[in-house]
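Predict the assembly for these two chains.
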Amino acid sequence: MGRRQPRGMETRDRILAAALAEFAGRGYAAVSIEEIAEAAGVTKGAVYYWFADKDDLGRDLQHELYERLATQALAALDPTGDAVSNMRRAFEVYLDALGSLGEARFFLRDAWTIPALDAGGRRDHEDAVAMVRGVLAAAVERGEIVALDPDALARILLGAWAEGTLHVLRTGERAPVFAVVEHLVESLRHRDAGPVTVPASPGAARPRSEED
Amino acid sequence: MGRRQPRGMETRDRILAAALAEFAGRGYAAVSIEEIAEAAGVTKGAVYYWFADKDDLGRDLQHELYERLATQALAALDPTGDAVSNMRRAFEVYLDALGSLGEARFFLRDAWTIPALDAGGRRDHEDAVAMVRGVLAAAVERGEIVALDPDALARILLGAWAEGTLHVLRTGERAPVFAVVEHLVESLRHRDAGPVTVPASPGAARPRSEED
């Protein structure tokens, strides 16, 4: 027991960090336990002390990425703020949480297709969908956003964010992606809702750079 | 040579169809060449006559799905129509082309993470992005849609469509997903643009079930 904390946890974290770097660099399928051990500077036995196999390790890694995302999202969201601003902030969190292209690829693509990872990942993903859906459903209820199905909308927005994230990481440019996300999220705002002013004339374009 | 056409091509098509059904049902990783041969009612040797290995087969399958998508998209798009209607139609094509949840999963998820498939798939995907981007860039140029980066927008829309497609296939319900796609695509329409009529009063909701 003493062996596990705190030194053991350090080893475990080191293995997870090394594994993520390897998966990010070369893709999940191409990496072996031996290579993870070597990258972490530990023996193969140490890896097998903490993880039953590569899938077990991948599953833990994926789960920790989701936890990081959920924690940061909860910290960033403003429960008293409007849903549109919260959606915009949620995308920023999503983007910030996925540090590199490789990491995002592991999380957004690889992890979905490994049968052993899929069930756990699906559960975590459903939790993320549920969080976004909850924000949207409450906003529809209040008449703050247009009456679209919150479940379909949550999934489609998460799909949009995933591709947006990959594009930012690929190009290194945030501005074009943020402008698109901003526009799509703003379009959800119900035009009847309170504080928003809508141009009265059909000819007047909505200012796209408005602050609220 | 005589052996390859037309009987050979039939065998090849039968192998591809069986492989797609197997991949769709159980995921790419779980399926062996033996099982594909059995499902196709051919010998293992027949599979190896046409394909070097499973990845080679997966690559061809993925490429054919992309080709199908591109052909149907080109047929469905109206070069003289407006970009917003074309984007809506493009989503319908996307959805119709991916017949089942398993097929969509293979195409939208599995195929991305197999290193051997990734390069070809990436090229095909870039072609799809380029097609959508071209439609969007021309529409931005004409002032028909809002001035967002066509590359970022194309990728984000394709991400939204991918998740929308999976959601339709998962739930069996098109209407909620179509309403979201319709709303997001409509939001791109430049309010200054010519023939579009916008409700004059801020209180009037845009009809979401309109036909055009």
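Chain A touches chain B through 51 residues (CB under 8 Å). Residues 132 and 154 of chain A are 6 Å apart (CA to CA).
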